[in-house]
Every structure is written in structure tokens, then in C-alpha cells.
Amino acid sequence: MTYARIAGTGSALPERVISNAELAARVDTSDEWIAERTGIRQRHIAADGQTTGDLAYAAAMAALQAAGVDAKEIDLIVLGTTTPDLVFPSTACLLQHRLGANGCAAFDVNAACSGFIYALTVANQFIRAGTAKTALVIGAETLSRFLDWSDRATCVLFGDGAGAVVLKAADEPGILSSHIHADGGYKELLWNPVGVSAGFKDEPNHGLRVLMQGREVFKVAVKTLDRVVEETLEANQLDRHQLDWLIPHQANLRIIEATAKRLDMPMDRVIVTVDKHANTSAASVPLALDYAVRSGKVQRGQLLLLEAFGGGFTWGSALLRY
Ligand code: UT7
């Protein structure tokens, strides 16, 4: 049996950090409100001209170096993003050329905040099927580009960044299972309802902005994440106490705590980066994973549960032995 194993991780964050206090000087909010309701204390925001692809490139280089893999060995690039550099070519193609990995398959996946879990699932299938041996999987975003900075309900929640993993075919797990789902019936609870084909609006930033019914999203997210972690445990006939780490999507500390409670995991076995990164959408899980690896928390051989939930709605999980 062939498995996909994480050979290396990497991440990148823009230099510019915006604190809650700085946002409170711009909109009617406060550090207390943001920290209490979300756990967020700061976020990184891309510089003018710094793109999703730039962050993806830095994260990919770090992951390749950690894996000891040359870019020419890559035979698949899957990149989760909702904020591509261009309409086309895909950010994955732009990245492939910059890395010098020309010739391999490269494409983007748009599954909003679940983008990395979706991308990981796709790459895992390629490796399990024997059609790829070395895959680069990335989640990268510059959500700041379409935030409405006058809307306190959304602008305090998001940040920019990128995370990457190099997957290699191996005889031992690796990724044990992944589970992805979507329900487009919820599209209007969290969306950006303009686009190339539907058209743009005669509004600031052409109508590009996040529209979210936060309280409703929160409720569905908690219930749905409960279901997907149960599904993952059941599929692997695993007791929840066998997990070493929960590496969740970083949208809201209260959602993370709810999932941890469901898994009966103490918070010191849960990776939390939402305080420093805010919600970086598709980048959030691989950013948290890279932090967990580089800080020495996650060790080789440990069992990790990754999960995410986002616009679409989309959601998913991956169970892996690191
Ligand atoms: O990654 C994709 C998935 N996204 C999520 O998972 C996000 C899920 N939702 C959430 O994280 C939370 O619902 C929010 C953090 C977005 C909001 O927290 P909440 O506890 O659900 O607050 P709320 O929306 O019910 O608003 C409570 C109050 C309202 O005032 P009133 O109506 O009670 O007077 C809001 O107007 O807080 C007000 N409010 C704010 N106050 C200060 C909303 N945003 C802010 C703000 N600063 N930034």
C-alpha cells in the first residue's frame, strides 16, 4: 500500500502586523471585544503589491527545504486559495514556474477556508493512486484585498498568509484518511457575491467584500465540525483519546474550544494560532501545522487531526501520522 507522508512544512506571513488597538482607531470596536469574542489579538496584512503567489512561494520554498526536496522532483502542485493573483493562469501555475518545476500538473482549488484540506485530499488521492510521487500542497490567501475596512463585523476577523507541505509517497502512513464535504445551500451565510461571470457592482472595490452572518455561521460550524471529527474517528476505528494533536482551522477560539471539548482534548494538545494570525482562510491550517512542527510541539510519529470549515459551506478533516 502507498501512503502520502508529510516530508516537510513551511509557512510565510507578511511583515506588517495590525493589532486590535490599531483597528479600534479605525472602526467602532475594541481590543476587548475582538479578543473576547474571537481570541484574535493581531493579524498580518500583505504589503501593496505583495500577492498570494508571493506568500505561497515563500511558504513552498521553506517546505521544500525542510523536506530536502528539489523543486524539479515535484510532480503535482495543488494550491487552495480564494484570493488568486489573477483570474488565470492559476496561482499554482505562477508558483510552478517561479519554483522551476515546469511540466508538472498544477492547479488551484477554491473551497474557501477548507481550501487546504481539500487540496491535501486531492494530492493524497494522486499519491495513493500512484500517479504522483512528490506533491506540493499549499493554502495561501490575501483576504485583506477584499475586506471592507469600514465593516467592523468582518474586517477584524481576517489576515493574510500561506502554509505549505511537501507530500512524498511512502510505504507507511502518512495520511490515514481525509473527509471533505460541501453544502451550497448555505452560500448566503458567508460569501462574496460578485465575480467575473456574475458581474461586479458599482460600489467601492467593485463590490468585492466578505458578507457574513457570523452568529449563524458559528452555530453551523460547531455542529458540522463535531460531525466531521466523529466521522474521522469512526472511519479509523479510533478512540478520541488516541489523538496527539488537534490542528484546527483558526477562525474563532470559541469554535476551536468547542471541538476540543467534543474530543475531550485539553487545550495544551490543541494548536492555536488565531491570536497571532486571525483567520487566514485556506492558509490557516498549514500555518498552524508549520508553527506546531517548527516550535517542536508536534513530533514524528504522532497522530494529528486537522479540520476546517468555511464558505460554501465547505468542511473537511484529515487524520495523519506525522
Ligand atoms: O472561517 C470561516 C468560518 N467563519 C467563522 O467561523 C466565523 C463564525 N462566527 C464568529 O466567529 C462570530 O459569530 C463573530 C466573531 C463573527 C461574531 O461574534 P458573536 O459573539 O457571534 O457576535 P454577534 O455577531 O452576535 O454580535 C454581537 C454584538 C452585536 O451588537 P448588538 O446587536 O448585540 O448590539 C454586533 O453589532 O457585537 C457587535 N459587534 C461588534 N462590536 C464590537 C460585531 N462586530 C463587532 C466588533 N466590535 N468588531
Order of helices and strands: EEHHEHEHEHEHEEEEHEHHHEE
Helical coverage, percent range:
25-40%
Query: From the alpha-carbon coordinates, what is the Rg to the nearest angstrom?
Result: 18 Å
> Could you say what the CATH topology of the largest domain is called?
Peroxisomal Thiolase, Chain A, domain 1
Characterize the overall form: globular
* Count of domains: 2
> What is the beta-strand fraction?
15-25%
The top-level CATH class of the largest domain is Alpha Beta
Number of strands: 13
Largest beta sheet: what is the strand line-up?
A: 1-7-6-4-5
The unreliable regions are none
Bound molecules: oxa(dethia)-CoA
Largest β sheet strand count, sense and barrel closure: 5 strands, mixed
The CATH superfamily of the largest domain turns out to be: Thiolase/Chalcone synthase
Distance between the termini: 17 Å
Keywords:
24% strand; Peroxisomal Thiolase, Chain A, domain 1; 10 helices; alpha/beta; 2 domains; binds oxa(dethia)-CoA; 322 residues; 4-stranded mixed beta sheet; single chain
Task: Describe this entry's structure for a reader.
There is one protein chain. This protein has helices at residues 20-24, 31-38, 52-67, 91-99, 115-129, 152-155, 214-235, 253-262, 274-277, 284-294; strands at residues 3-12, 17-19, 42-44, 76-80, 105-109, 134-141, 161-170, 175-182, 190-191, 211-212, 245-248, 303-310, 314-321. The chain is α/β, with parallel strands linked by helices and 322 residues long. It folds into two domains: 3-172, Thiolase/Chalcone synthase (Peroxisomal Thiolase, Chain A, domain 1), CATH 3.40.47; 176-321, 3-Layer(aba) Sandwich (Peroxisomal Thiolase, Chain A, domain 1), CATH 3.40.47.10. The strands form four sheets. Strands 1-7-6-4-5 form a five-stranded mixed beta sheet, sandwiched between helices. It has a four-stranded mixed beta sheet with strand order 8-13-12-11, with helices on both faces. Helix 3 (52-67) crosses helix 4 (91-99) and helix 7 runs parallel beside helix 8. The chain is globular, with a radius of gyration of 18 Å. The mean pLDDT is 98. Residues 29, 33-34, 37-38, 113, 152-153, 156, 214-215, 217-218, 221, 251-252, 255, 279, 309-310 line the site of oxa(dethia)-CoA (UT7). Oxa(dethia)-CoA (UT7) is lined by residues 29, 33-34, 37-38, 113, 152-153, 156, 214-215, 217-218, 221, 251-252, 255, 279, 309-310.
